[in-house]
Fold:
Amino acid sequence: MAAQKNKIAEEKVNGEPEEEKNGEAYGRRPFITRSNLRDLIILVSFISAMLYDLGWIRLAVSGILLIAGCFFHYMTKGVLIRNVVLCQGGTYSVVRHPYYMANYLIDSSFCLMSGNVYLLLVYPFLFYWSYGPTIRKEETTLARLHSSEFLRYSLDVPQIFPDAYSIRSMKEITRGFSTQRITRNEISRFMRFWATACFILFIHIFKMSNIEMLWRFDTNYVRQYPHGIALFVLTLVLFIASLLLQRKRDRGILKVE
Structure:
């Protein structure tokens, strides 16, 4: 009983994040969280792809966003040392939360690729609604652990998106990077990103094709729409490969345990 009282007193002194006091600690969670936001965006993107058209300009921009998001995701994982030091090198010299910036770029690419401009406009509000509590919690923890060092860092480096000053740090983005920190789980995640993009493009092509030929099992369908078939096959290959990598990772964990 005394230990529990001491723990509660320590939490009050340390200043626990607001969402732990008013959120999950009391069983109340927002409907859209960081863990399910991408699932929602992907589902809506699939539906939107059937209803909206996609132009070449939007396709090109969405491709650039996806590549940029995967790049920052990869580089961030290569420099992240969780709960040991305050990461300030590499992508962390550009923004304080480069991993979340990468997620923003990747999800935005899905929104734009779906052809639904309204989804792209709504996404920033959903992003801050779901990521805001996590960001506050992480920064409260960092401020408690690193105090003045984190204060100086937060004053020098922007939170989510780079500014005119921090963008200059892009030339040092590889500082502290190590491929040994890139796990099978990360490679599997990248494959799922591209599998999702390929399937959205497949929906755009499929809805414009002669579907009656497909229902009749007409072999001419493959010759008339080779891009659609190629995208569908690529989607399957990437998705199955991601599952196999994930399975190997799970076996490795069980073996270590």
Summary: The longest helix spans residues 117-156. Residues 30-182 form a domain with the Four Helix Bundle (Hemerythrin (Met), subunit A) fold (CATH 1.20.120.1630). The chain has two domains: 30-182, 183-250. Residues 97 and 135 are 8 Å apart (CA to CA).
